[in-house]
Amino acid sequence: xxxxxxxxxxxxxVRGSYASTSPDEGIWIPILIEKYNIxxxxxxxxxxxxxxIYSVNRAxxxxxxxxxxxxxxxxxxxxxxxxITNHHCGYGQIQDxxxxxxxxxxxxxWAMSRDGELPNxxxxxxxxxxxxxxxxxxxxxxxxxxxxxxxxxLISSRIADLQxxxxxxxxxxxxxxxxxxxxxxxxxxxETFRDIRLVGAxxxxxxxxxxxxxxxxWPRHTGDFSLFRVYAGKNNKPASYSPDNVPxxxxxxFPVSLKGVNEGAFTMVFGYPGTxxxxxxxxxxxxxxxxxxxxxxxxxxxKLEIIDKAMESDPLIRIQYSSxxxxxSNSWKKWIGEMQGLEKMNTIGQKQEYESRLTEWIGSDNNRxxxxxxxxxxxxxxYEGLKEYTLINNxxxxxxxxxxxxxMARRIYELASLYRQDQAPDAQIVMKTKEAISEYAAxxxxxxxxxxxxxxxxxxxxxxxxxxxxxxxxPEYLKLKKLTGGDFNSIAPGLYDKSVFTDQQRFDSFLxxxxxxxxxxxxxxxxxxxxxxxxxxxxxxxxxxxSRMNSERQxxxxxxxxxxxxxxxxxxxxxxxxxxLRVSFGSVKxxxxxxxxxxxxxxxxxxxxxKDNPEIYDYNVPARLKELYAKSDYGRYGRNGEMxxxxxxxxxxxxxxxxxxxxxxxxxxxxxxxxxxxxxxxSDLAFNPxxxxxxxxxxxxxxxxxxxxxxxxxxxxxxTIIE
Length: 723
Ligand code: ARG
Ligand code: GLU
Fold this sequence. Notes:
Blueprint: H1 3-15, H2 33-36, H3 38-43, H4 50-53, E1 65-68, E2 72-76, E3 82-85, H5 91-96, H6 104-107, E4 109-110, E5 118-119, E6 125-133, H7 135-139, H8 148-167, E7 173-179, E8 184-193, E9 195-201, H9 204-207, H10 211-214, E10 226-232, E11 246-247, E12 256-257, E13 266-271, H11 282-313, H12 315-345, H13 347-363, H14 366-372, H15 375-401, H16 404-410, H17 413-418, H18 427-446, H19 450-467, H20 475-484, H21 488-498, H22 504-512, H23 518-524, H24 526-541, H25 543-567, E14 582-587, E15 591-594, E16 597-599, E17 602-604, H26 605-611, H27 623-630, E18 644-649, E19 661-663, E20 669-676, E21 694-698, H28 699-709, E22 721-722
Parallel strand pairs: 12-22
Antiparallel strand pairs: 1-2, 1-6, 2-3, 3-10, 4-9, 5-9, 6-8, 7-8, 9-10, 10-11, 13-14, 13-19, 15-16, 17-18, 18-21, 19-20, 20-21
The chain binds arginine (ARG) and glutamic acid (GLU).
């Protein structure tokens, strides 16, 4: 038995199960791998060093891993800036380039030459240059006794200074992020690229195979990948799109392995996990599981019911709403899995037990009583309010973000405000603002179906009134409700026929002529009125109290974290995910999903064929793929007559890790992380070593699709392939 495991087991037996951690749990900090993790990683089979993962002195893996478009991860797989990420991460872009005539969502897209690669305005790729512990600089002279809001202000201004001075004159950008609930701060210096072009994507029948039905579920057969290329100026530095830009030459790119995986093989995931909350009190779990998630699941179910029906009725609507639907459905489904997982693990009960042991420990020492004695009781009171205000805020946003005309109406705020001042606005600024709005509107209306939005409008407003207490409803809404007797369905057509926010032509001409006299018309528009009223209602009545409580909570969190670390002083803690670059490691591993049912860790093309159903969009296997299967024509990508598709491992991952490289013991790319398995999806709040599994695409399936299926094998020429 290795030493760390031994220590963990001691902690486990002495302190009880909750506070302990399995050796595969954890989302670790790259610059601390040497100190905390490398030994265990090497014991698990990793053959490289911590410097190979992160170094500022020489090329290392961190130079190949990027934050893709502020929500996903991607990695370089060639010296010419070729990036691989998930299909669902590039989905918005693939969809943007799709029309009924050129339907890349349905048919896939392959540039076939560099000239054919498609630019994507607005998409960014961010590369970490270096990181640094700046805890002392941020917290110097700041105490826990200071009033929460004053403390936050001081911290924010320190952070702003550090960020500014770190990048002066460099063209980089910097951010400082709190770790361990504000007990530690790190500075990140980043370089952001803006000319990112679409290189290739399989048809949705491969890239999104199984759709939202299979989403979050193992066994899985989704070929969830897409390819982009980063372009830079001739000096290899970020530049805005220009036909003269050249492929970016990264400091490092991953060699791609054809060796594949077996159960037990070492795996490392290197990417940008978004958010986890592993150290929160039981009250937080109660809030999420019993209050927020159920309400949000309910309202999203309604949205999905409406959108699904519309998508089935019309191929154009299918294109228009596919990306929006995927987003709505994704969290909806995860929240359900999360509630089930928390229930099954009895996380609230586990935490309560842990809290009572902790309370005992605190109470057994006067000094500790003084420092920590108030924390848990304070949490209990605070969460009473947080539960209510968080729900009001989240639910209200969910309602009004669900009405597309309201979303569009918000876009005009900035322009309108220019005309609310006494003097005439600057013509230049007006023109720029109009241009930006016009560009947004073009994208908006391309994917807009008025009839669908009308239904959303009625359903959202009905739920809003049914779910929140009257005192939390916006006055404008109450007026509308009174006027119509709550029958939003019957007033919808009238409103939608007239508003400028529901029709591209009306909107364009309104925007073109927009001037001071337009304000009157605007103020009569029902969607504009709702948009304005709801945000002013929230900022007046909900947000101040919510932000006060959240400040209070953060202050408690920081002290609670300290208490937990002191209580469990032999454990090596990992910080919650916070959208910064992290490492998780583990191994390929199956699991028991329920009594007597064991899931093996690798899926194959055979499973795709078994799921084939031409009647269902998500399971309609392309003929070419069936042909390759029939002939077992897998080239060098298959193994023992089978074509691997996905695999699972016990790496600790979360949203944002999509597209992350999965790396083998030699540092080669073997997969692309894209999901987690249903039974363990609550791992954002409580990792379950028995069932928490990340799902990855086997890189060989991606290569097989590029080469054999799409005939775009030219792309493999620029990769380094390890046979
Ligand atoms: N569940 C994965 C993630 O959280 C994949 C989502 C995209 N796929 C989908 N069918 N909606 O992002
Ligand atoms: N699909 C997720 C993403 O987009 C990763 C799955 C997860 O939440 O672990 O980041």
